[in-house]
Amino acid sequence: MTARRTERAAGRPRRLKRAAFTVALLFVLFAAACSPPKQGGTVNSGGYVSAFELTHRFNLRAEPDAVRGVFRFTGDVELTVLAGSPSAVLNGERVAFRSPVLFRNGDVWLPAEAVGMIERAIARSRIYTYSERPFSFRPSTPPPTSRPPATRRPSRRPGVRGTVVLDPGHGGNDSGAVGPRTGVKEKDLNLSVAKRVRSLLAAAGVRVVMTRTADVYVGLRARVAKANAAGADCFVSIHHNAASSPRTKGFEVFYSSNNPFGSLRLKRSVRLARDIERRLRGKWNTRDRGARHKSLYVTRRTRIPSVLVEVEFMTSSEMEPLLTSAWFQQRAAAGIAEGILDYLRGR
Known about the structure:
Helix content is 37%, strand content 20%. With 347 residues, it is an alpha/beta fold. It folds into 2 domains: 48-124, Copper amine oxidase-like, N-terminal domain (Copper Amine Oxidase, Chain A, domain 1, 2-Layer Sandwich); 163-345, 3-Layer(aba) Sandwich (Aminopeptidase). It has a 6-stranded mixed β-sheet with strand order 10-9-11-14-12-13, sandwiched between helices. Strands 2-3-4-5-6 form a 5-stranded antiparallel β-sheet, covered by helices on one side. Strands 1-8-7 form a 3-stranded antiparallel β-sheet. Strand 5 (87-90) and strand 6 form a beta hairpin. The N and C termini lie far apart (109 Å).
């Protein structure tokens, strides 16, 4: 009995040391979890940089949406990140960090490797000025005659004549599809892209009629009636797509071959669809899903050549963070506008 008491007394200090070590370890881990990420770390050390530090270093403008967890930085580059995700979109291309983006203490923290990615993106897009290029001056012999050289008048490409009806899909209490991660509504994307298309077409001399210019509900019959009464050359409805799989992405253009207004109208609708498809191809890194028939009310009931453009899948985990960026919307609008102009020139 005495020997057992001696062994217990000898083992008590060791147990106390273990307990103290365990408490100290838990305290350190808790303090590390509650503190902000390591600031200014390198890629190898796994550090983070804050949005404040990033914007001041590269003179970027931050556009945070803390409710949805989406953060956009614009300037010499355009970067869109999502809190909790290692994926980001840099100048329209998807990139991946080694660690997820964090949102702590009211600020967004990006993995430190984002600094190098931004520096390389700026270097790739840099435009050299004359002062930065090697320059050497060599005196030249004056021309034999003192007659001033003939001046050429700058050539101006004539504007494209025509009238186009643009139809931003959905609106008002009809929101259309909704982004599963960002919560962005299709009706807002449709209208934003349509307005950009309108500006590009108007700059080329095209008269544009919009079925809606604000967040209001317009029925399908009213859209068709407005298109038929406009005396327009073509009708383009702008939408964004949705699918059950987050891997599905790409654009597609639809026309209706079961339109009752004749084969010439169908032939022109097919050409309009293919012109837009061709111009959208390569505007961003996605899949071309083609131009093909689909029986849709607005393309079936309009008397003029008509197509419906599905710009991109809102349910795509890769594309969704990109859809609200000005860079993407302008690229999509440019593709649609260029396709319409090609069609009008080829009438």
